[in-house]
Amino acid sequence: MIAIVDVCAGNLRSVEKALAAVGGDVVVTADPEVVRRADKLVVPGQGAIGPFVDGLAARGLEGPLRDALARGVPYLGICLGMQVLFDASEEGGGVAGLGVIAGRVERLRPADPALKIPHMGWNQVRRPAGAAADPLLVDVPDGAELYFVHSYHAVPVDPGVIALTTDHGGPVCAAVRHGTVFACQFHPEKSQRRGLALLRAFVES
């Protein structure tokens, strides 16, 4: 059973439909006990990280998430579900994350002032030189275009966790791999066949 964790942060139904379309046995839940029992976890989110973190605490979901991550339950984070894994975000004056991956989330500051924030739309992704191929990216080739909507980006302490990058007036971390955790800044549920391929790989892994 794949639990899609409901933090009241948008895009839940589109993620649910996309996972079901590739064969996932999914349930959308805000129940901490369901999260504890899940075989796999998907944590999507859109918007600001402060209300997202507050939502985790208010619904009693932070502890079950931490426990599941410590036990090695496969985790797929999408957008805020990626950013919350880091130590802290500078958004909203500073918000503490879960600290699963060392690093910070910072506002996008493209070198070209003509580039708009948020970074929105299709953009190419690249695998870092020398990075091992991730099993969720078997059908997401180097140079594939995926769909982004974000104003902040993760800056890991260890560049070795970066699975994909993109460019928006400078390099941007597009996905990370940390043990059984895979998380992406782009939205696979909005990324058509390449995004569905990633979700299918997660379901089948």
Q: If you had to describe this structure to a student in words, what would you say it looks like?
A:
- The strands form 3 sheets. The protein has a 7-stranded mixed sheet with strand order 2-1-3-4-13-12-11. Strands 6-5-7-10 form a 4-stranded mixed sheet, with helices on one face.
- It has one domain (2-204): Class I glutamine amidotransferase (GATase) domain (Rossmann fold, 3-Layer(aba) Sandwich).
- It contains 6 helices and 13 strands.
- A hairpin with a 3-residue loop joins strand 11 (162-167) and strand 12.
- The chain is α/β, with parallel strands linked by helices and 205 residues long.
- The longest helix has 13 residues, at 192-204.
- The protein is globular.
Keywords:
205 residues, alpha/beta, Rossmann fold, seven-stranded mixed sheet, four-stranded mixed sheet, 6 helices, 26% helix
Count helical runs.
Answer: 6
Give the strand line-up of the largest sheet: 2-1-3-4-13-12-11
β-sheet strand percentage: 25-35%
Instruction: Work out the count of structural domains.
Output: 1
The name of the CATH topology is Rossmann fold
Low-confidence stretches: none
Sequence of secondary-structure elements: EHEHEHHEHEEEEEEEEEH
Please outline the major beta sheet: 7 strands, mixed
C-alpha geometry:
globular
Oligomer status: single chain
For the record, the CATH class is Alpha Beta
CATH superfamily: Class I glutamine amidotransferase (GATase) domain
Q: What structural class do helix, strand and pairing data support?
A: alpha/beta
Radius of gyration: 16 Å
Helix share, percent: 25-40%
Q: Note the gap between the termini.
A: 13 Å
CATH architectural category: 3-Layer(aba) Sandwich
- Counted beta strands: 13
Mean pLDDT: 96
